[in-house]
Amino acid sequence: MEKIRILIAGFGNVGRGVVAALKRNPDMELAGIISRSPERVRKEITDVPVLHYDDVAGFLSLKADVAILCGGSKNDLPLQGPRMARYMNTVDSFDNHSRVPEYFHSMDDAAKKGCHVSIISTGWDPGIFSLERTLGGAFLPGSRAYGFYGLGPKGGLSMGHSDALRTIPGVVDARQFTHAIPEALDRVRKGENPAFEPGDMHTRECFVVAAPDADKGEIEKTIKSMPGYFAPYKTVVNFVSQEELNEKYKGFPHDGTVAAAGVTGEGNSAAIEYRCVWGSNPEATASVLVAHARAAARLFAEGRKGAFTILDIPPAYFSMLDHEELLAHWI
Known about the structure:
This protein has helices at 13-22, 38-42, 56-60, 77-85, 100-114, 128-139, 159-166, 182-189, 216-224, 242-248, 281-301, 323-329, and strands spanning 4-9, 28-35, 50-52, 66-69, 89-92, 117-119, 145-149, 156-158, 171-180, 202-210, 234-239, 254-264, 268-278, 306-308. It starts with a strand and ends with a helix. The chain is α/β, with parallel strands linked by helices. The strands form 3 sheets. It has a 7-stranded parallel β-sheet, with helices on both faces. Strands 8-9-10-11 form a 4-stranded mixed β-sheet. The protein is globular and about 55 Å long. Helices cover 35% and strands 26% of the residues. It has 2 domains: 4-125 and 282-329, NAD(P)-binding Rossmann-like Domain (Rossmann fold, 3-Layer(aba) Sandwich), CATH 3.40.50; 129-280, 2-Layer Sandwich (Dihydrodipicolinate Reductase, domain 2).
C-alpha cells in the first residue's frame, strides 16, 4: 500500500514531535519540511528536503499528500492556514477557542477554493477534549461537560499560551503553566453543573525571560490583558533568567480531564470522565495531528473538500486498522 506523504510546515517542538510520531506510523512517511529558517532546520534534519516556506514550487514538487501545520495559533496559523490550504490538504492545531468559528470559516473557504481538505483545531484540546465534551453532553442531556487542565501540583505546560507570551516585545523566552482549581472540579464531579466563567476553573502562571532593556511592568501588563489567553484568568507573572527557565521549568508535561455529571431516567446519578496524561505535550499533540493527517488523506480520496474538525470525522478514519480489524479488536 502506498504510504501517505507528510510535509511539516514549521519546525519547533511540535514539528519535532511529528517527526517522532511518523516513525510509529508505518503507513506514513516524511516528504519534507518547510520553514522560515531552513538553515537552522538543516542542522537537525539531514535525511529529507528542507525548503524555505516561500518556495512554493519546491515544496509542491515533493508531492506530499498532507501538510501538518506546526505554527503558533496567535500569529502564524491565521495566515499560514488559509495560504497552505490553497496548495494542499492540511491539518493544524489552532487552539484559540474563542476564534475557532472565525478560523474554521476562513479555512473552509480556502480549502474549497483549492479543492482540498483542511482539518483544523486538533490535538488534545481543542481536539480530543472537544469530542469528549460533545459526547458527555449528548449522553447525559442537561449536563455540562467541562475541561480541566494542569491537575497536578506543578500544573501543565501550555504550548499555545507559551507561544503567545513569546510574541510580546521584550520577551526572550517564556513558559506558561495552567493550574486547575480543585474546588471547581469537585463541584462538577458532584453534579452541580455550575455556570463557570473561564477564570473560575483555572489560574495561569507565567515564567518569563525579559530582554535586559525591557520594561517588565509593561510586559506584565500586556500579558494580563491579552484577550483569549490571559485576560479572564488570575495570572501570576514571574521573571526569571534563561538559565533558571531551562533548568527548573524544563520538559513539557501536561494533563487534563473532561468531566460531566448529571442524571439518567428518573433521577439516577451518572457521571462521565475522560483523562489524558502526557509526559510531553508537543509529542502528544503531534501524535494526534498525525492520526488526523491519515483521516485527511482518506477524506480527500473520497472527493471531499473544505474544513473539518474532529467532530465531523468517523473515528475509524484515524486508525491504521481496517474495518474488519476494528470490528474484531475494538468494538
